[in-house]
Amino acid sequence: KRGYERAAALFANELPAPVIDEWKDRASGISANLHRLFDPKAGGFVGATVAGRTFDVWGNGLAWPLASPEQQAVIAGTIKANRQKIFLKGCTRQIIGPEGWPGTEAAIGYQNGGYWGTGTGFVLPMLAAIDPGMAADQIKDLLANLDVMKCAEWIDKNGAPKGALEFLGTLAMPLIGLRAILAGKHTLDYL
């Protein structure tokens, strides 16, 4: 949605009007159809409509400002009820459970079961809206663990660093989330 909106604005004077109009229509269509990915039984927005249909923590963080107040209440309940499963050492799991995306054979431990600093940036403004203390805890935990985890791309369920070390996204995305909170905006405003 944001990509189409920004591309339409950026290239408005460079590309034919029908192309710009199509991008604006696509952005509008995404907003109009976002409700299709909301599943109250799953607790919020799901990561897919068929395979892998499960609560997507990062996706809910990004979709938060587009959600209705009723949807936000459902999402907030899911986050609060699963806080201990979602967050570790300031990093954020993409899905609640470590068993993988339902209906897929994704590698257990990476997206499924791993915790990411990058994902924390996606959810910080949502956490600040749900419970400012929860957002502050995430920031404090991440800052306390960045050196220990060597700013790793992700950590496993025991907090051990995995993937690339000194991974810029592990620092950059949470800083974007924090900047969004301080500016009264959302992570989407910076992507």
Widest beta sheet: strand line-up: 1-2
Strand tally, please? Answer: 6
Helix/strand order, N-terminal first: HHEEHHHEEHHEEH
Rounded radius of gyration (Å): 17 Å
Question: How would you describe the oligomerization state of the chains in this entry?
Answer: single chain
Mean pLDDT: 91
Class based on secondary structure composition and strand pairing: mainly alpha
- Sheet of most strands: 2 strands, antiparallel
Strand content: 5-15%
Question: In terms of per-residue confidence, which ranges show pLDDT below 50 for 5 or more consecutive residues?
Answer: none
Number of helices: 8
User: So what's the overall shape?
Assistant: globular
Helix content: 40-55%
Distance between the termini: 11 Å
How would you characterize the overall build of this protein?
The protein is mostly helical. The chain contains eight helices and six strands, in the order ααββαααββααββα. It has helices spanning 2-10, 17-33, 57-63, 69-81, 83-86, 117-130, 132-145, 168-183, and strands spanning 38-39, 44-45, 87-88, 91-92, 154-155, 161-162. The strands form three sheets. It has a two-stranded antiparallel ribbon. Strands 3-4 form a two-stranded antiparallel sheet. α1 runs antiparallel to α2 and α3 packs across α6 (117-130). The longest helix has 17 residues, at 17-33. It is globular, with a radius of gyration of 17 Å. 34% of the residues are buried.
